[in-house]
Amino acid sequence: MPVARMLRQVVGQMPGRPACGCWTSAPLARFLGTSPRQIPADANFYSSSFSGTDQPRVLITGGLGQLGVGLANFLRKRFGKDNVILSDIRKPPDHIFHGGPFIYSDILDYKNLREIVVNNRITWLFHYSALLSAIGEANVSLARAVNITGLHNVLDVAAEHNLRLFVPSTIGAFGPTSPRNPTPDICIQRPRTIYGVSKVHAELMGEYYHYRYGLDFRCLRYPGIISADSQPGGGTTDYAVQIFHDAVKNGKFECNLKSSTRLPMMYIDDCLRATLEVMEAPAESLSMRTYNVNAMSFTPEDLAQELLKHIPEFQITYNVDSVRQAIADSWPMNFDDSNARKDWGWKHDFDLPELVTTMLNFHGSDTRVAQAN
């Protein structure tokens, strides 16, 4: 089945739209070495397109996913609204469209991506287009096209135009043979999901482009990211987002992971700050191109107990999804992020109590707490 037709069919079947926005009716497969621009064997690119006193010109791909809008708002406060361009293939809601520059961008269309970079004088690119773990397992061909072929396009454009490139990685880049508690930056990985395989591929390709062509590639392995103002995006750690919606609305939550499943997590404010900090870090301070970052590690039971302090009538039940549980059981229980803390001064702000208080304040739990009291 042609990939373009498959993309359109799969979208209609998915429980939620993917965070990538990357299907197209144009020819999709453009692999490294077949682009209009061949990278010379002796190429030696460096991100010198702006000085330290200039503001970067930023493009965010997959911008309507879980993290893109928050990152755009965060960066616009720092660099100015007009210097940060959000992109996706989906039509944005009004408040996003009017909040700052937004354009159509399909990462599977190399020509479109290249034109955007040239026409907007982009110097930093944040590549957030991806299908997450659970959705990726249901749509392997789509995940392969978006997560791998799309990455190749981004790498080529970034190398050609001397961009500083950020590609997020994940706890899903590790597998059942990885050390789990804690998981260091460098160890055996061997993930068993297409999402994890594609992220290991991204880490290694980015590092290769750095050493082969001088591309300024930077990458953080995110833990599960918890955000108050976005909906779950099809990931295995999404229970830690959905639980707050359900707790405030219904006073109960059905969890699809076992109560004892421990995973590393981070509040979105820490995630966005870590992302900007690693992008702004002097190149000479980076001893590696891909870093673990962490804030806390907890189980569904730990989270439920903290919620009970605020919503005494809250109830949690468990209906384990075997696919998601198998994925979670292959992932790290805790990240060792000592290199990030040593090299560029990473330090998180939110632990579990601060996380729960912040999330409930955002969702307006005062009424329910008052009723319980």
Q: Would you kindly provide a written description of the structure presented here, covering whatever features stand out?
A:
This protein has about 375 residues and is of the alpha/beta class. It has a domain at about 20-225 and about 265-295 and about 335-350: Rossmann fold (3-Layer(aba) Sandwich). The protein has helices at about 5-15, 70-80, 95, 110-120, 135-140, 140-160, 195-215, 240-250, 270-280, 300-310, 320-330, 340-345, 350-365, 365-370, and strands spanning about 60, 85-90, 100-105, 125, 165, 170, 215-220, 225, 250-255, 265, 290, 295-300, 315-320. The strands form three sheets. Strands 1, 2, 3, 4, 5, 6, 7 and 11 form an eight-stranded parallel β-sheet that branches. Helix 2 (about 70-80) crosses helix 9 (about 270-280), helix 4 (about 110-120) packs parallel to helix 6 (about 140-160) and helix 6 runs parallel beside helix 7. The termini are far apart. The relative contact order is 0.13. InterPro entries: Epimerase_deHydtase (IPR001509), NAD(P)-bd_dom_sf (IPR036291), NAD(P)_epim/dehydratase (IPR051225). It comes from Panthera pardus (Leopard).
